[in-house]
Design goal:
Radius of gyration: 30 Å
Structural class: mainly beta
Shape: elongated
Distance between the termini: 53 Å
Order of helices and strands: EEEEEEEEEEEEEEEEEEEEEEEEEE
Strand content: 35-45%
Strand order of the largest sheet: 3-4-5-6-12-13-14
Length: about 400
């Protein structure tokens, strides 16, 4: 909290204070800035004008209140938007509490404190209000020399009909990072919520992969060394030679389960009914034990309901995915990992009513739990399968 020690900027509805001194130099997108323009509507900028050319001191900055996407030709240049929205919309001169604090050396905090979102501050004791901060951290610099930027939320509500804008934009408006605009979030981003902090930092001068551990694009090896060459052997031992491997049945429910085995060799024996169309069908069974009641279901009849079965399960590395379609329509069968990421599309087409099957070869994937999903216009069936290698 800085409202007890920061400077009150004395802003009101749709107001702006231009070129507020930071008392230090901050590097942003490779350019040096020493002042910040701050708006009551949840944004700051290093350049206040619509046109970044010319004399900044004589330009007419606009206190933009209708938030736009990033990038966008309108709005300030070099924008920092922790929560760009119309925060106090009554058009009157009641105070919008925005505070500024700087340590005079390398860091600044701007705090929008207890400000109404899409409502009026005045005579509004019960409306929902937001408190959040924009932090410029020039002490922690990237390899390119740029400072870090942190958006921090104490209490946040995204209420109006077009949502907020959160993100940063370059001084030339050519590039930027948009965390959210109009309720559309960056991929894998967490929705705005209390106690959330978002940090914008630059590790390298150019783009590297998400799993890179240095600016050269190297990744961690199995021993945790950045750019190292240690690899797992077929037993999963880091830098091992495979001498500790033992092939056998690794599925605990099988009658020939080998607790010492480290690699499943496909020899597991699980007895049961293997007839997909039998009432006694056991999706885990590998050997038929004669328990199937093959007369229970007439295979010539069309299915009455959607169904999905996978055999064998557990499997290594091929599984047959069988499904029943009771009505004509478009059907997709997809594979997902435990994080919900789509890995493969087994089928994506129109089907006549009937029984069908497809094969998934998972030899390119590691042991673990996966999900097979059958989806139609109004039906979704998901089955969990276990890949054991």
């Amino acid at each position: 909290e800085i409202h007890h020690k920061g400077i009150n900027l004395n802003l009101n509805d749709d107001s702006i204070i231009k070129d507020k001194e930071l008392d230090f130099d901050f590097r942003y997108y490779g350019e040096i800035f020493s002042s910040l323009t701050i708006c009551s509507n949840g944004w700051g900028s290093f350049l206040p004008c619509l046109d970044k050319d010319g004399d900044y001191s004589s330009c007419n900055p606009i206190p933009h209140f209708f938030n736009n996407s990033i990038t966008h030709p309108l709005g300030p240049y070099g924008m920092l938007a922790p929560f760009f929205d119309d925060l106090d919309d009554n058009g009157q001169n009641d105070s919008v509490s925005v505070y500024l604090w700087t340590n005079g050396a390398d860091s600044t905090i701007v705090q929008w404190d207890n400000v109404a979102n899409n409502q009026t501050n005045q005579n509004c004791p019960d409306c929902k209000k937001v408190t959040f901060q924009l932090i410029l951290d020039g002490a922690n610099k990237s390899q390119a020399g740029n400072g870090e930027i942190i958006f921090q939320y104490k209490e946040i509500y995204d209420l109006d009909d077009h949502g907020s804008t959160v993100g940063i934009e370059s001084p030339d408006k050519i590039s930027g990072t948009e965390y959210v605009f109009n309720y559309s979030y960056l991929e894998d981003a967490i929705e705005l919520q209390d106690s959330l902090a978002i940090k914008f930092t630059q590790m390298c001068d150019g783009k590297v992969s998400d799993n890179a551990c240095n600016c050269a694009g190297d990744v961690l090896d199995c021993a945790g060394d950045c750019g190292g060459s240690n690899m797992e052997d077929i037993c999963g031992i880091c830098n091992g030679n495979g001498s500790s491997c033992k092939f056998g049945c690794t599925y605990y429910a099988a009658e020939n389960y080998d607790s010492d085995a480290t690699i499943n060799d496909g020899s597991c024996i699980i007895r049961g009914c293997t007839d997909l169309y039998s009432e006694e069908y056991n999706s885990l069974a590998t050997h038929d034990d004669g328990s199937c009641n093959t007369m229970a279901i007439d295979k010539n009849l069309l299915p009455q309901n959607f169904s999905l079965n996978s055999y064998p399960n557990p499997f290594n590395p091929v599984v047959r995915v069988s499904f029943a379609i009771p009505e004509m329509g478009f059907v997709s069968v997809n594979i997902f990992d435990i994080m919900g990421r789509e890995l493969a599309v087994l089928s994506n087409q129109n089907y006549e009513p009937g029984y069908y099957s497809v094969i998934w070869n998972a030899s390119a994937y590691s042991s673990g739990v996966y999900f097979i999903s059958l989806k139609t216009n109004d039906t979704t069936i998901t089955q969990k399968v276990l890949l054991l290698k």
